[in-house]
Every structure is written in structure tokens, then in C-alpha cells.
Inverse folding.
């Protein structure tokens, strides 16, 4: 990453008025949240419970909730880091029109960006939703009273099955979220993709869509991505090192 490239990124950043952030798990590791796909991450340690298994099998539901309880212990006290706060500052300056995120940790919400500016493609762990009546509860309330030695939780309204309001394996993404993400991708003049391998579809289609529609595409992530060759700016530094480099210049 050359001095000239950084100056180009900064110049476009200052000129852009319709910026969209696209974020993946790599932005939250510096908040102490493990990347699902990394060695030792949840997917490395546990075979996932598919949505149809959750619906049909009580033992699978218990296993699912045991894992979610473990994840909640990691999430509940996590705080937004410099990358989350970078996007919050852009929002405060009236330059960020939205965030498209693959993350379910709720750290963009915790940073202070309004819910209606965030497209949670894979849902959020900050809520627990009933699969029958749709009643939504704060996850903190559910997990604080969770006793899996008795049973998995049920909806307090209709006694239906509940689960964190996230997209499970085998469960389709919400059409409205896909439509909102597409609208942001086609409206922005700059998209900044942070902490994503840009491999998982359909999420990874949105940075491509933004670039094809004329937006400046910046990719900030430690790994190579399929879109590096077409991006206008690429940094494979750790995000904290990248922000240090930006401030140093």
C-alpha cells in the first residue's frame, strides 16, 4: 500500500457524500469476537445445526441453544472498535447512507448507528424471535434467565419455538434485507468493504454491484478477495494498523 494510494483513498473519502460500509467478521475480531471460520472458531469446533434440524429435533434445539449461550458470553460485553466508530463518525458527518453487514454481533448498533441504517444480512444476536407469532424479545433478557438444564426457551406469548433472530444454515435470507442492500449498493458513490473475504454469496455481490454502478470500491481486509483486481483501493493490513497509517498521514 503506497503513500499515493492512501492519499487517493483519503481524497475520495473526503469527497464522497453517499458512502456505504460493507462489513464482515474480520472487523469484530479486535473487539474480542472470534471469526467463525478461523481455527478454533465455533465452526471449527462444532458441526452447525441446520434450520430444519432445529425445527424437528429437540436434541438439536438444545445443542443449538448451548452454542448460542456460549457465543452470547463472548458477545454481551463486546464493545465497538475503531472500525465501527469510523463508520459512526461518517454517519455523524452526514456522509454514510448505510451499512450492509454479514455480522450478527450487533456492534454497529452499539456504536450508535440507527437500526434503520443497518442491513443485517444474517440477522442479529441482539434479539430473540418467535418462529410462530413473530414476537421479538431482547436477547439479554432471554439469556439472563436461560436454564438449559430444564428445557430450551419458548415464546412467552404463544409457547412457540424461539431462536436468536439470525439466519441459520439452511434458512433463506430475508428478501427485504436483500432489497435494502441492493438499494444501498446502487445508491452509493463509495463502498468501503472491511473485514470480509467477499466469498459468501449473495452478500459478496453487493460490493461488486456498487463498483459496476460506478462507485469507488475500497477493500480493507487481511486476506486476498475475489474482487481485489477490480477494486480502486486495497489494503491487506490489520484494520488497526490501517487506521494508524491513515492517521500518520
Amino acid at each position: 500500500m503506497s503513500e499515493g494510494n492512501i492519499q487517493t483513498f483519503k481524497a475520495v473519502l473526503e469527497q464522497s457524500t453517499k458512502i456505504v460500509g460493507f462489513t464482515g467478521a474480520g472487523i469484530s475480531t479486535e473487539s474480542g469476537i472470534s471469526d467463525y471460520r478461523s481455527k478454533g472458531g465455533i465452526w471449527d469446533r462444532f458441526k452447525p445445526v441446520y434450520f430444519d434440524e432445529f425445527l424437528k429435533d429437540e436434541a438439536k434445539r438444545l445443542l443449538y441453544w448451548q452454542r448460542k449461550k456460549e457465543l452470547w458470553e463472548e458477545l454481551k460485553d463486546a464493545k465497538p472498535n475503531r472500525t465501527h466508530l469510523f463508520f459512526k463518525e461518517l454517519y455523524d458527518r452526514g456522509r454514510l447512507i448505510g451499512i450492509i453487514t454479514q455480522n450478527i454481533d450487533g456492534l454497529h448498533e452499539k456504536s450508535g448507528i440507527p437500526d434503520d441504517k443497518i442491513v443485517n444480512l444474517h440477522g442479529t444476536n441482539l434479539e430473540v424471535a418467535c418462529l410462530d407469532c413473530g414476537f421479538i424479545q431482547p436477547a439479554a433478557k432471554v439469556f439472563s434467565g436461560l436454564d438449559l438444564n430444564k428445557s430450551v426457551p419458548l415464546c412467552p406469548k404463544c409457547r412457540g419455538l424461539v431462536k436468536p433472530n439470525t439466519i441459520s444454515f439452511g434458512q433463506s435470507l430475508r428478501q427485504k434485507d436483500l432489497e435494502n442492500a441492493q438499494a444501498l449498493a446502487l445508491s452509493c458513490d463509495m463502498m468501503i468493504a472491511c473485514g470480509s473475504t467477499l466469498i459468501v454469496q449473495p452478500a459478496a455481490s453487493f460490493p461488486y454491484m456498487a463498483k459496476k454502478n460506478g462507485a469507488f470500491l475500497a477493500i480493507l481486509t487481511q486476506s486476498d478477495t475475489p474482487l481485489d483486481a477490480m477494486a480502486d483501493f486495497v489494503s491487506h493490513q490489520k484494520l488497526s494498523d490501517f487506521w494508524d497509517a491513515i492517521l500518520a498521514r
The chain has two domains: 1-32+79-122+173-249, 34-77+124-166. The longest helix spans residues 58-75. The chain has ten helices and nine strands.
